């Protein structure tokens, strides 16, 4: 099986080219590929398949040639992956599988159509505008934190840390507990503290994340969008541009009236072949 390895601010992916949807990709194979000791190691898998050849993409094959078939490291599906979409488009461009039309590259995802554009060294992807819902709580190591539920195509809970508590003090080796009635399919939980002003943006937030299906990651693009939308709301704004620092680097999020742009580095770092029978079962 051919693969490419890539990452966006340290959120890393095994990319599997499968244009005709011929690969027998199972949760077990995804988990084995993502195993950091016995496999290639990644936060998730991006299968590159023609929309027309994937059951969840075929209905939108007229809008984009490619479907981003994203899987979490534990073999579960997610509706959307912001960093994954940026790395996916980097792969399409570098492989000559797509070229921008009117400046953007469309991609079908489980959460609908997204568009990406190249911005200097970065790739920016336009997703849905985050929808803010109720408050809820996350419990972690004796702390109970209140947060805002946010839908970015996938579910998030954004929790600001109380003053005096640092992000580095959190133990994210275990999943935070959350309300299963509000998040029946699980949730990605972001923890935030305010950052110092950054020139050119309307605000600055630092975050860590525990991702559904992938544990703590160095970055989560949809999580950064959720965090930016909550920070803008807390500043009394509907739209604006936020700098969001994650352990793996810096993302810029622009929330508009009807969408959300996520921008940052997206890199391909290796290609190779892997023999599925040598992976853990
Ligand atoms: N890291 C991703 C989000 C991946 C999916 C998430 N773990 C979920 O299950 O919803 C991103 O960059 O958005």
Identify the CATH homologous superfamily of the largest domain. Diaminopimelate Epimerase, Chain A, domain 1
Tell me the name of the CATH class of the largest domain.
Alpha Beta
Specify Rg, calculated over alpha carbons.
Answer: 18 Å
Largest sheet: 12 strands, mixed
Shape: globular
Number of domains: 2
Count of helical stretches: 3
Strand content: 35-45%
- Classify the secondary structure makeup into a structural class: mainly beta
CATH topology grouping of the largest domain? Diaminopimelate Epimerase, Chain A, domain 1
Level-2 CATH architecture of the largest domain: Roll
Ordered list of secondary-structure elements with their pairings:
Elements: E1 2-8, E2 11-17, H1 27-34, E3 44-50, E4 66-72, H2 82-94, E5 105-109, E6 112-119, E7 122-128, E8 131-140, E9 143-151, E10 155-160, E11 188-194, E12 203-211, E13 215-217, H3 221-234, E14 240-246, E15 249-255, E16 259-265, E17 267-273
Parallel strand pairs: 2-3, 10-11, 12-14
Antiparallel strand pairs: 1-2, 1-17, 3-4, 5-6, 6-7, 7-16, 8-9, 9-10, 11-12, 12-13, 14-15, 15-16
Residues 11, 72, 78, 81-84, 154, 188, 211-214, 217, 220-222 line the site of ligand LBFN2T5F.
């Amino acid at each position: 099986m051919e693969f490419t390895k890539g990452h966006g601010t340290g959120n890393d992916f095994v990319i599997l080219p499968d244009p005709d949807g011929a690969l027998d990709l199972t949760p077990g194979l995804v988990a084995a590929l993502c195993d950091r000791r016995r496999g290639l190691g990644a936060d998730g898998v991006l299968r590159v398949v023609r929309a027309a050849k994937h059951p969840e993409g075929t209905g939108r094959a007229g809008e984009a040639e490619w479907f981003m078939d994203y899987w979490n490291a534990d073999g579960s599906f997610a509706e959307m992956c912001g960093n994954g979409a940026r790395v996916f488009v980097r792969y399409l461009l570098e492989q000559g599988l797509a070229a921008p039309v009117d400046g953007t590259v469309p991609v079908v995802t489980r959460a609908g159509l997204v568009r990406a554009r190249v911005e200097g060294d970065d790739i920016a992807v336009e997703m849905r505008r985050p929808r803010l819902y109720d408050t809820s709580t996350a419990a972690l190591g004796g702390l109970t934190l209140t947060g805002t539920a946010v839908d970015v195509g996938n579910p998030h809970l954004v929790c600001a840390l109380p003053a005096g508590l640092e992000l580095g003090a959190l133990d994210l080796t275990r999943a935070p507990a959350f309300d299963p009635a509000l998040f029946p399919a699980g949730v990605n939980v972001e923890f935030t503290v305010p950052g110092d002003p950054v020139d050119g943006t309307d605000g600055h937030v630092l975050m860590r994340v525990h991702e559904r299906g992938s544990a703590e990651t160095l970055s989560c693009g949809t999580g950064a969008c959720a965090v930016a939308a909550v920070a803008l709301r807390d500043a009394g704004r509907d739209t604006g541009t936020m700098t969001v620092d994650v352990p793996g680097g810096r993302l810029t999020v622009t929330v508009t009236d009807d969408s959300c742009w996520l921008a940052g580095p997206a890199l391909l770092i290796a290609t190779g072949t892997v023999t599925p029978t040598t992976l853990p079962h």
